[in-house]
Amino acid sequence: MTAVSDLLLVSAAAVLFVALLVWGARLPLLPLREVIVKQELREVKRGEIERALSERLRGNLFSINLEPLRLSLEQLPWVRHAEVRRVWPSSLEVNIEEHVPVAFWGLATGQFVNTYGEVFSAIASQRPDESMPLLVGPSGMAPEMLAYYQQAEEMLKPIGRVPQVLNVSPRLAVQLKLDDGIIVELGRQQTKAPVKERLERFVEHYKSIMSVARQRPKVVDMRYPNGFALRVAALPATENKGKP
């Protein structure tokens, strides 16, 4: 009898709790009065947040569904992640993580790679940092390409060069364009001759490459196992003055 009595008390308490929630949700009490954005944002504007939330702010603090609000915010171009929580007695608190661009992506305008190696499309309200590198490659390879770019950037520091463009072909051949205009052909990844080793060889012989060429080479081809090849721009034709 004691067990049955306890069970009935627990059931009654649960029913009462649910009834209180339903009652509280229907009361015109605790109306939502403000939305608080916790951090200062660089690209996402207050008006964008208001438009994203306006049609979904229905109900009071208890009844409003937070998940559609979060998803709506994450549809904004510069929002990588959003969180929404209730703040007693009448507010919603919004936390937004913006995309932080570290590279341009592809040849289309308005595509970037963020710090996580994720590609996103957006129009910057502020002028993009023109010193950011350009990554061009197959869809889905942005994380690997960003990691390799950062590795190449460190490897080139001893010779004072900075990679500006990293291009990976559909066949996964790697090419770097440096800040002095030189294109370094590194080829495809191979077990016996990794791309990293070819770039190390370029750095090691950079001074020799510059001294051997009569003019700055246009392309340095490092795909050879024990050497390299240089291609220079064609010299302009000279005029034969004094001849008919």
Explain this structure to me?
The model is unreliable at 6-25 and 238-244 (pLDDT under 50). By secondary structure, the chain is α/β, with parallel strands linked by helices. It contains six helices and twelve strands. It has helices at residues 2-26, 46-54, 66-73, 142-156, 195-204, 206-212; strands at 34-37, 79-87, 91-98, 101-105, 111-114, 119-121, 134-136, 163-168, 174-178, 183-187, 219-221, 229-231. It has a nine-stranded mixed beta sheet, with helices on one face. Strands 1-3-2 form a three-stranded mixed beta sheet. The longest helix has 25 residues, at 2-26.
Helices and strands in order:
Blueprint: H1 2-26, E1 34-37, H2 46-54, H3 66-73, E2 79-87, E3 91-98, E4 101-105, E5 111-114, E6 119-121, E7 134-136, H4 142-156, E8 163-168, E9 174-178, E10 183-187, H5 195-204, H6 206-212, E11 219-221, E12 229-231
Parallel strand pairs: 1-3, 4-7, 7-8, 10-11
Antiparallel strand pairs: 2-3, 4-5, 5-6, 8-9, 9-10, 11-12
Task: State the gist of this model.
This protein is an alpha/beta fold and 244 residues long. It is built from six helices and twelve strands.
- Fraction in beta strands: 15-25%
The biggest sheet amounts to:
9 strands, mixed
Alpha-beta classification: alpha/beta
Oligomeric state of the chains present here: single chain
Low-confidence runs: 6-25, 238-244
What is the chain-wise order of helices and strands? HEHHEEEEEEHEEEHHEE
Alpha-carbon distance between the termini?
124 Å
SS elements, strand count: 12
- The number of helical segments is 6
The radius of gyration computed from the alpha-carbon positions, rounded to a whole number of angstroms, is 30 Å
Helical content stands at 25-40%
Which strand order does the major sheet show? 6-5-4-7-8-9-10-11-12
